[in-house]
UniProtKB/TrEMBL annotation:
PANTHER family: GDSL ESTERASE/LIPASE EXL3, GDSL-LIKE LIPASE_ACYLHYDROLASE. Belongs to the 'GDSL' lipolytic enzyme family. It comes from Gossypium lobatum. This is GDSL esterase/lipase. It holds the Pfam family Lipase_GDSL. Coiled coil: none annotated. InterPro entries: GDSL (IPR001087), GDSL_lipolytic_enzyme (IPR050592), SGNH_hydro_sf (IPR036514), SGNH_plant_lipase-like (IPR035669).
Amino acid sequence: MASSIIIPWIFYIQILAISSKAIAAVPAIIVFGDSSIDSGNNNYLPTLAKCNFEPYGRDFPGGIPTGRFCNGRLPPDFVSEGFGLKPIIPAYLDPTFSISDFATGVCFGSSGSGYDNSTAAILKVFPLWKQVEFFKDYQTKLQAYLGDEKANEVISEALYIISVGTNDFLINYYNFPQRRAQFTIPKYEDFLIGNAEDFIRKIYSLGARKLSLTGLPPMGCLPLQRTLNLKNPHSCSEERNKVAVKFNEKLKVSVVKLMIELPGLEVFYTDVYELLSQLITQPSQYGFEVAEAACCGTGQFETGILCNRHTPNTCLDADKYVFWDAFHPSERANKILSDEMLPSLKLAFQ
């Protein structure tokens, strides 16, 4: 990446961070999960689950395709800015950033990952256990940079954003026979919930106390799922939405259980299902014109490598679309979702 591109991006981050008048309620935002939050870690993997090419990032500061599955910024970026921290959460593996940048926010997420390790294996990306290893490495570097006492304070007071689970169903369970042979959908949900609890216990043991845990979106209404809905073409798959609703109910019960079990743990459940459903079913109320199809290409199936600079018919104004590609919301949708949940997050963790 040429320095002439990198400098304006970093300059933008510094200026917005300095000019922010908000007082940070948390010292850092630390992020785990999948493509809903990955800010570019997959750029450094030999995987198809990456998007470090145009037109991705065309509305990001400097027009940079950072590896975010979006035309611009992701929810953790907006949450960080909303808490008075920097407006960009960098990927841990991005060599243009250092521990001084990561001290106030870092992303360990990997597009294509899930609560199920076998989900990450499909696209050869980082599973949650590897993201935890990155977190351990980060702590060592943070202690060397800030000293043990200050570093431990950052770790215990940071807000941890966790967004994962959709790929377990849409990439893994519905497309490959192994898990379907092992589990019914309810049993697979229980298996994933168990893995989610184990993950939270692990990062809790490493010092995490303030968690924002995101549920599944209305995954049957993603443009790609509408395309694959052969029973009712171009309509939401109600069967897959029902799976998401049931999983989310179990996840909320799990949250209560973990807060009772683990002293000092605070978990804010982010109901992305309800928030995104509102944008999809009432797009005009939020200033959107299209909710059924995405901006990139035909809007029916293009995502990742299929959404590239040569893809024809990509829209000129992504702000009119709820979805950027057939799997991921547009930057404007991400901002609306983040703005909706920020007041509750601040109330929970200030």
